[in-house]
Each structure stands twice: as structure tokens, then as C-alpha cells.
Amino acid sequence: MSPTPQPRLRLAVILGSVRQGRFGPVVADWFLAEARRDDRFQVDLIDLADTALPIELPGPDPSTVPAGRPPGMRDLSEALAAADAYVVVTPEYNHSFPASVKSLIDWHYAEWRARPVGFVSYGGAAGGLRAVEQLRPVFSEMHAVTVSEAVSFTRYWELFDGEGRLTEAEGHRGSATLMLDQLAWWAGALHAAREAVPYEVAG
Predict the structure, then answer these.
(1) φ, ψ for residue 42 (rounded to 5)?
(2) What sign has the CA pseudo-torsion 90, 34, 30, 160?
(3) Residue 81: CB partners within 8 Å, gap ≥ 6?
(4) pLDDT tens digits along 15-67
(5) Which of 128, 157, 179, 202 has the greatest CB tally within 10 Å of its CB?
(6) What is the secondary structure of 127-195 as a DSSP string?
């Protein structure tokens, strides 16, 4: 008897930058192409520039968050809820990550629970890694699992040509492959675990 084919995992790639003249779409497009070559995933893009994310939150009780979301956030929230794993594409602003990413995290709660998160970052000498290292404990607080492998673009403006092509892709492709491997393992394991026993937060 042949084994039952495993369903494809849903990977949501979150483009975090919303600033004018952003470079984020170039980086996101590169990673989307890499991820879509991986048959284990169905890949969707969530561009935070497409949805207004208010700074004011409905209240400290997480149960009030869904009811307090603006109607225009519905598609974004449904895309997050449907995902088995996430990759955040983030720049580094002032040694940290954009306010848009923090707002996205704070407007959602149960969506992140027991799901893996990977990171693609870009910046100057640090390649955006200071933003990533600050995001890890934030996602941990949301009961998500961050994978250790990440993709980082140091001095990104030197790495892509005028057509948005990565000029020396081998090393970054290797990092992307390792990260996708880790995401696939965690996403599969956690999906099965949630199906067997719904994840509940005590307290």
C-alpha cells in the first residue's frame, strides 16, 4: 500500500515594510520564488502595505481582539489563521523592526499559537539581524516557535541588480533551503499536534 500523500503546508510570507520607496518587495519577490519551488508549501504573500493597521488596540484581554478588528482587516486575519507557518520579511529601522510588524502581531493572538516563524531580513552591516533578534522574544510571547536558520542580506543595495535579481545567490539560497526545511518540520509536527490536541494557553 502506498503512503497517503501529505497535504501541502500553507506558508504565509509577510512583507513588513510599509515605508515610501521601500526595498522590501524586491527581497520578498526573491524569497517567494525560492519558497514556491518547494513542493511542500502553498505560498501566500501578505503585504502589510495593503491593510491599515491601527495603533490603538481594543483592550488588554486577547478575547476582545477579533471583535475589535476593523472590517478591512478581515482578509489579512483570515490569511494568517489559515497558515501553518510564517516568514517575516523585515528591514532594520534604528536597530529594530518596523512598527507595522509590531502592530500586526499585536492585532492577532491565537493565529500565532503553536506555529513556526522564520525570518528574511535586510539592512546595512548587520543585515537586519538586530530586527530579527528582537522579534524572536516577541513571537515567543505569542506562543510561536521561531526557527534558528534565517536569511540575511547585508548591504542589500549592493546585492541586487537593477532588475531585482540577486547577483550572488548561492549562499542565500542555501540559507533559504535550510530555513524552509526547518519550517516544514515544525509546521508538519505542530499541525498534527494541534489536530490531535488543540493548543490552549493556561492562565
Answers:
(1) -100, 120
(2) positive
(3) 110, 111
(4) 999 999 999 999 999 999 999 999 999 999 999 999 889 888 887 777 788 88
(5) 128
(6) TTHHHHHHHHHHHHHTT-EE-S--EEEETGGGTB-TTS-BSS-HHHHHHHHHHHHHHHHHHHHHHHHHH
How crowded is residue 21: how many other Cβ atoms within 10 Å of its Cβ?
5
User: Residue 136, Cα to own-chain centre: how many angstroms?
Assistant: 11
C-alpha cell at 128: 537586519
CB 58 within 8 A of CB 34: no
Place of cell 520564488: 33
Which of 66, 65, 12, 78 has its CA nearest to residue 41? 12
Compute the distance between CA of residue 126 and CA of residue 115 in angstroms, rounded to an integer: 27
| Cell numbers given for 70 | 476593523
